[in-house]
Design a protein that fits this description.
4 copies of one chain form a homotetramer. With about 180 residues, chain A is an all-alpha fold. In chain A, about 80% of the residues lie in helices and about 0% in strands.
Chain lengths: ~180, ~180, ~180, ~180
């Protein structure tokens, strides 16, 4: 489903009617936002992949936690397109961060459901405290009010969080 | 495929050209309808997941019962968008319920095909009589004429049925 | 991928701006064409499912035969939408049949590749001569020129072929 | 995901409002570009299939190399649509080649990651030096500046590279 969301964002790129570099320039904010959201969704994809790899049995409660995460992620194409059109205005930038915060918290819920359901001490030991996840939540929650002060700073925070997660979580990999 | 249908509904969210809260307000009915249909499709996803988990062999007749269910579900993005634009008018609200009723009955057919084909007494014992499914059919069938009296009541019935199913069916889980 | 093609056809249903039955009427030809194409793609889905179930090893040549089939099927949403707008004119009706003929022949190629590659005598015995496939090719090839005489007759032939295939191919099922 | 990208390209085919052959003619450049991109994506599909078949364990670094490839491939529907509208102009033709070059190099990175990670000498022996990949990179890199001299020649190079890859890579198949 994350793959489908990525491709839906591609649909936003309207074919320019001119064959000049100037005709591509209006697409630049969307293109940069697309890269940010692509990395954002990619992070969930890889982490989700590791998580599901460990999970042996998918219960109904895990399925709904999963759907809850997908609900937030499904709003990403919309917030990406809106922010890219108004990247210097508070509301669209804050809404983008709100969806990222919601996704992050939904992932934490999914993660704790899997750990609890599975009594998966192996996983728990591997990951330890989810400090990186918690730090991201704090960063997003900070970026929301900041959008009314200076939107580019909020976007800077989103980029920083994305870069921090680009380093794959070797903790799960190493132990498993 | 249910994942694709969910993402198709997301395509309905047209990016507003203003960066204000007022520009988001026209999207509110669509957003609420989206949540309702998301839960609706999510219910089929989780139940379908449990059902397929039990099914050992997919015969042609099960495949077609499956396609029949997907046919009804594939109409959900259309009925969601239409109802969200006219949520206080009888026909779109009734058509939304009609597709929900059709999906529910198609699921019952799929379910009984699997039970019959598999002579799956284990599954049959686990689920017992499908009273929740039948009650939903009755609720939907009631909501259809109600739409001509007072559309919000029909929508209330749809919401109630969705909430009733949000509680995952532990019967299958427990036994398997 | 067939699931994606089915959902792409759903995108053609533009939400009517009125809440009346009259507003739904212009969608009727598209809806009927959608049902026809849904059954058409569903047939490939179920047959493809049985075929892949038997195939043990997917070689490069089978992958390309598969892609060739998907190429033809990928044109179905376009021909469905075009025919539904002009169902009483020769060219769109004939083009619809042409894509069906191409899909049918691509399926035959895929089928023979799998039989040859696998030296799959078990499969060969199960299916025997592909008379139903050949009869369909003849029916489609007949429907093409007929479209210039009387388009509804061509559409009737498409419907008849679809109905003939709705009966699942029990030959493979029984033997395997 | 490659299947989704292929179907997204199909969305570009706007249904003509006339039922004549003349109404189909404006779609011809898009149709030919679609075939080229379909083969292009099909090549990645089959090669990717073989590659993943050999890979036993998907590490985080392989997942990201995979996402990097998908990023480039996700731009193909856009470049296909743009080039098809301006196939006799330098920039769109060069941008199409740039995305093909990026995809090719991303595939090489993915390939070398898998070989290195797996210490997959079996795979390494099977494929030997990746001369075909390198030759394609050179061809694409040549086609970029050529687009400013004579765009059709660049397109000719793209077609030639696609045809060269249509022959499936039997080296992996034979050894495995």
């Amino acid at each position: 489903m994350i793959a489908i969301l990525i491709t839906i964002m591609v649909l936003e790129f309207k074919t320019p009617h001119e064959a000049t570099l100037a005709a591509l320039r209006p697409l630049l904010p969307l293109f940069l936002s697309y890269i940010l959201s692509f990395i954002f969704l990619g992070i969930y994809w890889t982490n989700h992949h590791h998580l599901m790899h460990i999970t042996e049995r998918v219960s109904g409660s895990v399925l709904w936690a999963n759907l809850h995460l997908l609900f937030w992620l499904s709003l990403v194409p919309f917030t990406t397109a809106w922010m890219s059109e108004h990247y210097h205005e508070a509301l669209p930038v804050a809404v983008y961060g709100l969806v990222q915060l919601g996704s992050g918290m939904a992932y934490s819920v999914l993660y704790s459901r899997i750990v609890r359901h599975e009594a998966n001490t192996k996983l728990h030991e591997a990951v330890g405290s989810d400090w990186k996840g918690r730090a991201s939540h704090v960063a997003y929650a900070t970026a929301l009010p900041v959008a009314w002060l200076w939107p580019p700073l909020s976007i800077g925070i989103y980029v920083a969080v994305a870069l921090a997660w680009l380093v794959p979580d070797r903790r799960i990999e190493k132990k498993v």
